[in-house]
Amino acid sequence: MMKPDYSIIIPAYNEEELLPRTLESVRKAMGGVNGYTGEVIVTDNNSEDRTAEVAEQFGARVIFEEVRQIARSRNSGAKESEGKFLIFLDADTVLPREVLERTLETLSSGDYVGGGALPAFDSPQGRAADILMGTWRVISKTFRYAAGSYVFCLREAFESVGGFDERFYASEEIHLSRALKKWGRRRKLKMTILREEVFTSPRKLEWYSMWQLLGSILVFVVKPWSITRREGCQMWYERPELGAAKKKNE
């Protein structure tokens, strides 16, 4: 049996609510791109809900990773994958066909080591959120840092740099982007950020205030070592109670 050309890897912890939308977008995108074969892997990161069952219903291959860490979850999925191109997609992010098509064309060209796509919220969030997202998009395009919602690369490069750095509980996509750029430069391969957009959930803006989000970013700037500890990345690993989130938005 021939190996697939690409693997889409989705880390997921308690994602039964948004995962169906993501997997439906993946199914449509894969069905709309000709000339390539692909597979979908969902890493169930020790979920307490129906995440694994939902993934299987959509035909994804499910693997289990007990340790709750985003970098480790992505790496576990990559180890089980077979594609020569690796695509990492967040469980709350919609993948348009155009993005998948451009990704495969980019990696097939022989000129690129990897890259990402521009993230956008899937619904209007107001001026402050637009400024926050716009700031990241400028940083992403300027330094060619892929957003965690969508990262792609050559398997050879991913394995050579050691995958996502499991010392970090957040910003692991930035560290991977740097490693891929360095690996690519030696081989005259470029890192790129596609013009096309992926659409991601604004749920952190629903769970936390803008000041809380900005405060967490400031902590990373002042205390960069905090990203090596789970307790320093609570907004990435803890979800507020539904009642608390509603009260915050009232």
Main traits of this protein?
250 residues, 11 helices, disordered C terminus, alpha/beta
Q: Could you give a quick summary of the protein structure above?
A:
This protein is of the alpha/beta class and 250 residues long. The protein is built from 11 helices and 8 strands.
Average residue-wise pLDDT: 91
Kindly, what is the distance between the CA atoms of the first and last residues, rounded to a whole number of angstroms? Answer: 55 Å
Spatial arrangement of strands, main beta sheet: 3-2-1-4-7-6-8-5
H/E element sequence: EHEHEHEEHEHEHHEHHHH
Number of helices: 11
Describe this structure in words.
It is built from eleven helices and eight strands. It is α/β, with parallel strands linked by helices and 250 residues long.
